Amino acid sequence: MTQHVPLLIGGEFVQSETSQWLPVTNPATQEVLAQVPCATADEVERAVETAKEAFESWKETSIGDRARLMLRYQHLLKEHHDELAELLAQETGKTFEDAKGDVWRGIEVVEHACNIASLSMGETVENVARKIDCYSITQPLGVCVGITPFNFPAMIPLWMFPMAIACGNTFVLKPSEQDPLTPMRLAELFKEAGAPDGLLQVVHGTKDVVNQLLTHKDTPAISFVGSVNVGEHIYRTGTDHMKRVQAFAGAKNHMVVMPDASKNQVINNIAGASVGAGGQRCMAISVAVFVGEAREWIPEVRDALAKVRPGAWNDPEAGYGPLINPQARERVLSLIQEGKDAGADCILDGSECVVEGYPDGNWVGPTMFRNVTRDMSIYQEEIFGPVLIALEVDSIEEAIALINENPYGNGTSIFTSSGAAARKYQHEIKVGQVGINVPVPVPLPMFSFTGWRKSFYGDQHAYGKQAVKFYTETKTVTARWFEDDIASGPNMTIQLK
């Protein structure tokens, strides 16, 4: 019997009363793993209302108790790490090693949430005027909402709800309907860690559910990761309803290859950064910019890509898995064809990729283009597949200008042995996350995930100190006490309970 994915409302896993169900399929086989509901409006309303009620007591919970909940949770996540990775791999198609990385990067953020006491400290100035002190404190917002994508069903939910809840909020999670099994397992473990009922709600669905959460009067903050079009809608709708919004959107990430770089490092790193995870990540390197004589390495990069073989999640030799669904595959194949039709040289073509034993998988092999112009769709659009574009320029200045003209600003990297070139690049590039001899510069949780321009809509970014600012409000107190009111006498005592 096909599993029906439940909702989590008020601490209980409940079956939806909806009449609309969507299949959750294995991308390598098209096997239906489960049916996920599109929650009814009443169910979404109940989730928000329950979270609102739970907030009244949770906001009064000591910060130490909140930190200890996160300590217990990160311990359980580590204990179930491989189990989570296997579940994730089956519903996303990721290789087991890739899935383990997805889970682990989420665990790192939960570990960071354990430091919530030090992250939440305010500021104090004594005697801002005569015998008047001023200090600031942070307080939670209420019911926060997270809308997460298919490509990181463990990491990105763990970017959001642990930090929000550690700050004293409650949370409603709307995970991707394409792979909801992993987020539900995260929720089960959160309950097992001792989370009080109502702290975390999970509802499923598509646009109607999202819009209800975006416009609800009791959801002051929205976190989102996904495509550009949806990100723009989330940001506009949320801010139109006077909410805080952080919306992480698309990308077109460039790696600049200087002629003084280590050739072996360049070739090895481009291969993994461009087609790893099937290119289905917002920090994938989709454009390699070869400067000067470095263009001579392009054939060797192609040869390295050609050796990367896609396969099923439990194939230890597979470099990456299938795309998430047939529609994603058809979109990538269509863009590859558009590149060919526009006159780009397809020097490695993965359009006809076949994986033995998995004839129904959403396979696209490693693909590489050369002689691409900036007006072509394969350069303009985020392909979100295992496709690398090679561009050639004569100088670092030309490379910087090229990247700064691109509307996206999520991540970029430069490979060089020159400290001066690296310094110039990191200073002048208009991109939020820069790698120097590091291909995918995703920051660790003590920093923040800092996309720029069309890759991010909002003011405060995910995890790190900026997440605490996003999920809290600052209150400033100015206080004066009159010494004439000090009680006197031999019986003055202070009792601590």
Automatic annotation (TrEMBL):
This is methylmalonate-semialdehyde dehydrogenase (CoA acylating). Keywords: Coiled coil, NAD, Oxidoreductase. Residues 41-90 form a coiled coil. Its EC number is 1.2.1.27. Pfam families: Aldedh. The keyword Transferase does not apply. Belongs to the aldehyde dehydrogenase family. It comes from Marinobacterium stanieri. The lineage of its organism: Bacteria, Pseudomonadati, Pseudomonadota, Gammaproteobacteria, Oceanospirillales. One of its GO terms (molecular function) is methylmalonate-semialdehyde dehydrogenase (acylating, NAD) activity. One of its GO terms (biological process) is thymine catabolic process.
